[in-house]
Amino acid sequence: xxxxxxxxxxxxxxxxxxxxxxxxxxxxxxxxxxxxxxxxxxxxxxxxxxxxxxxxxxxxxxxxxxxxxxxxxxxxxxxxxxxxxxxxxxxxxxxxxxxxxxxxxxxxxxxxxxxxxxxxxxxxxxxxxxxxxxxxxxxxxxxxxxxxxxxxxxxxxxxxxxxxxxxxxxxxxxxxxxxxxxxxxxxxxxxxxxxxxxxxxxxxxxxxxxxxxxxxxxxxxxxxxxxxxxxxxxxxxxxxxxxxxxxxxxxxxxxxxxxxxxxxxxxxxxxxxxxxxxxxxxxxxxxxxxxxxxxxxx
Length: 298
Known about the structure:
Largest sheet: 5 strands, mixed
CATH architecture of the largest domain: 3-Layer(aba) Sandwich
Oligomer: single chain
Radius of gyration: 30 Å
Strand content: 15-25%
């Protein structure tokens, strides 16, 4: 009957003795002392509650129970070697990988998940470029990108990895002073938080400007984080991604209005087989899949 806790590490010395036949040969192969090896074999036998070897002057011979254990121990050995090989290949991936993405995606999605990636690939330096208006894959400003706009030209490979949901949001303090009626299609009488002229081409800017009355009071900014801050401060109604509005405890006034945007993973075509870029792509696909509900209205 077993009286010790099984230690999986003892499968390796068991196999060494079984294959080489003597403690001295097995100890030399494993680079450990004979006494240490003997104790580990005894520990394994005690944990299993059966003798695994017949001790003789000529060496160690497997018992029937020991023979039955060989196949199982070899499965453990194979798994350990596979794990070691994978860890070694990860350690060999080195250099720098440059990812361009929106600042909000970087701060809310990518950066919080990076510690695990860095732990897996300790020799890979990650550069996150959030100035995506100037970052250009064709100029080699970045190796890959997470974008909401589908590239219309260039030698790139792209894959849709998610959908960014948008809604109308405002703070409770603003709504106490300016009650909102969903029937007010033009947001008449409301203060609007919109985009500056330099960002007028953005889909969100075009949409909310189409609803803003010409005489309405408008706050304009150049970034989502400042729009979020303006909404939290009670300055008006903003069109925001659901994950930002929800995270800031703002009230969603309208969940769906046709502004939802696809999120694309874009890679320079000549880098799709690069190991450093490939592992970053796998990482991004994984976290985007995990966050699918995070981007939705509910």
